[in-house]
């Protein structure tokens, strides 16, 4: 059975505190959602603002394969704005719980029912597809909920949706609720919130109970604790509920996840299922050994399935099998004695609370292998001029292959200026700074600053670090250390 997917990242997801997407950003996300096979895209709420309507109009102009919806209350003014945006459909949201009807709307069930029916008639008279979403359905009287749905179907609604607005369903109650709605002749959708961390589980139970459509957001973003996670649901259906399927191109899940994280600024917790940075990372020696022999030993799915790659983390828990695998990736061949010595040195470093980077590993391995690399680039001096009315300017004195060079650069801040002063030189061309992270590793205003960066040249990526009381010196030293590492294996 094919399960339809309505993604509401652009509406419910944007209600995440602090998130506000521009029309261009919404269009990028909508295009990507359509590209990966999402059936329905809730592009926003047309009543919200002129800017919101402009965003929705840009999306509807694209001629996407997905059905484009706008959120709408059961009011003519809302529906007219939806029509003005030329959407295919409306997500007509009607509160059905006594709490919402009496306390929020200050009305009666009879008037609510009339309001719902009239709104559906108005939508259908104007050629709109209608999905009727019962807000707070999970706390509604079941008989009244069914009455709302049966009336909606009589008035020509195309789909109905159960909204667990405050996330109070459990997998058992979700299954029971959706099983009780099988009598209806139109598709039944499930819209869950994650207040108790059960949104994905409740959505999957709803499918087992009879739901044929699910509402999701990318990365599970949304107000309060968020919504049903798109990526977790899609992969679970694909791998665990094999009697069901979706049209989503599962190998592109990581790409859309990263896109939404970048554009919204809501970054993904490292241990998040499927898309978190640690989802396919292995440090434990036992796990790494098993993964190398057969990835199924400690991975329920392969990372490639969702467009990712596994990684072996260097740390005190890693064993020699995982370490040897990482050393080979770095082009280092060691014997068993050397391997154990390198492993012991890593554990000693990690026991002292230090994050072990590829640069640390290279240095440890070089010492054990008695390979001494002469760095081609050395930092001699860096000077910064900055102030309220002065563009940050940096001058650096560095030695490259025994030649001392003085150079200057400007930037948005002193660190940016210092890096710009260095990377404008020819030897730094084609080297991209792809990640920059700063931690204060001691307390107080004189704290030591730990700067960790990732650099890329071609297919080669390295990490490097600099630890200093001064963030500028730490950043420059980390950058130069990374470049030296990238240049080390090149032939000149």
Task: Give the structure's gist in a few sentences.
With 492 residues, the chain is α/β, with parallel strands linked by helices.
Structure write-up:
The model has no long low-confidence stretch (mean pLDDT 88). The chain folds into 3 domains: 4-264, Aldolase class I (TIM Barrel, Alpha-Beta Barrel), CATH 3.20.20; 281-369, no CATH class; 377-487, Double Stranded RNA Binding Domain, CATH 3.30.160. The chain has helices at residues 23-35, 50-60, 76-84, 98-104, 109-125, 142-154, 171-179, 199-209, 230-239, 253-264, 285-293, 320-329, 336-351, 358-369, 414-423, 471-487; strands at residues 4-7, 40-45, 67-72, 89-95, 129-135, 159-164, 188-192, 213-216, 281-282, 311-312, 377-387, 390-400, 403-410, 432-440, 449-457, 460-468. The relative contact order is 0.07. Helices cover 38% and strands 22% of the residues. With 492 residues, the protein is an alpha/beta fold.
SSE layout:
Elements: E1 4-7, H1 23-35, E2 40-45, H2 50-60, E3 67-72, H3 76-84, E4 89-95, H4 98-104, H5 109-125, E5 129-135, H6 142-154, E6 159-164, H7 171-179, E7 188-192, H8 199-209, E8 213-216, H9 230-239, H10 253-264, E9 281-282, H11 285-293, E10 311-312, H12 320-329, H13 336-351, H14 358-369, E11 377-387, E12 390-400, E13 403-410, H15 414-423, E14 432-440, E15 449-457, E16 460-468, H16 471-487
Parallel strand pairs: 1-2, 1-8, 2-3, 3-4, 4-5, 5-6, 6-7, 7-8, 9-10
Antiparallel strand pairs: 11-12, 12-13, 14-15, 15-16
Helix pairs in contact: 1-2, 1-10, 5-6, 7-8, 8-9, 11-12, 13-14, 15-16
């Amino acid at each position: 059975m094919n399960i339809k997917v309505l993604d509401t990242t652009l509406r419910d997801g944007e209600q995440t505190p602090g998130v506000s997407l521009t029309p261009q950003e919404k269009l990028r996300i909508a295009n990507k959602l359509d590209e990966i096979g999402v059936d329905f895209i809730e592009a926003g709420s047309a009543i919200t603002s002129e800017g919101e309507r402009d965003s929705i109009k840009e999306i509807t102009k694209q001629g996407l394969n997905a059905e484009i919806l706008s959120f709408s209350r059961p009011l003519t003014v809302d529906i007219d704005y939806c029509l003005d945006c030329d959407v295919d459909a409306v997500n007509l949201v009607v509160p059905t719980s006594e709490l919402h009807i009496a306390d929020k709307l200050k009305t009666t069930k009879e008037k609510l029912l009339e309001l719902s029916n009239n709104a559906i008639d108005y939508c259908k008279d104007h050629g709109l597809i209608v999905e009727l979403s019962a807000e707070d359905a999970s706390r509604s009287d079941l008989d009244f909920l069914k009455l709302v749905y049966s009336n909606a179907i009589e008035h020509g609604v195309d789909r109905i949706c159960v909204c667990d607005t405050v996330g109070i369903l459990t997998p058992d109650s979700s299954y029971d609720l959706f099983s009780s709605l099988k009598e209806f002749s139109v598709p039944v959708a499930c819209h869950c919130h994650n207040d108790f961390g059960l949104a994905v589980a409740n959505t999957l139970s709803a499918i087992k109970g009879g739901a044929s459509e699910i509402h999701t957001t990318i990365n599970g973003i949304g107000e309060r604790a968020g919504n049903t996670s798109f990526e977790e649901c899609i992969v679970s259906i694909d791998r665990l509920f094999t009697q069901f399927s979706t049209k989503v191109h599962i190998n592109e899940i990581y790409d859309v996840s990263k896109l939404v994280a970048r554009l919204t600024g809501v970054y993904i917790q490292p241990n998040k299922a499927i898309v978190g940075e640690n989802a396919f990372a292995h440090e434990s020696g036992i796990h790494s050994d098993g993964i190398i022999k057969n990835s199924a030993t400690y991975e329920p799915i392969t990372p490639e399935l969702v467009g990712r790659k596994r990684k072996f983390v260097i740390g005190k828990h890693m064993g020699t099998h995982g370490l040897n695998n990482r050393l080979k990736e770095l082009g280092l061949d060691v014997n068993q004695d050397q391997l154990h010595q390198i492993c012991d040195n890593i554990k000693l470093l990690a026991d002292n609370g230090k994050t072990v980077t590829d640069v640390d590993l290279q240095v440890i391995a070089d010492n054990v292998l008695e390979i001494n690399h002469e760095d081609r680039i050395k930092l001699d001096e860096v000077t910064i001029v900055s102030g309220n009315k002065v563009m940050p300017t940096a001058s650096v004195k560095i030695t490259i292959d025994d030649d001392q060079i003085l150079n200057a650069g400007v930037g948005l801040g002193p660190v940016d200026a210092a890096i710009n002063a260095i990377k404008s030189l020819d030897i730094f061309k084609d080297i991209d700074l792809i990640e920059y992270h700063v931690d204060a590793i001691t307390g107080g205003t004189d704290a030591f600053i730990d700067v960790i960066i990732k650099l890329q040249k071609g297919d080669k990526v390295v990490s490097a670090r600099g630890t200093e009381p001064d963030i500028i010196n730490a950043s420059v030293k980390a950058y130069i250390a990374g470049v030296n590492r990238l240049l080390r294996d090149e032939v000149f």
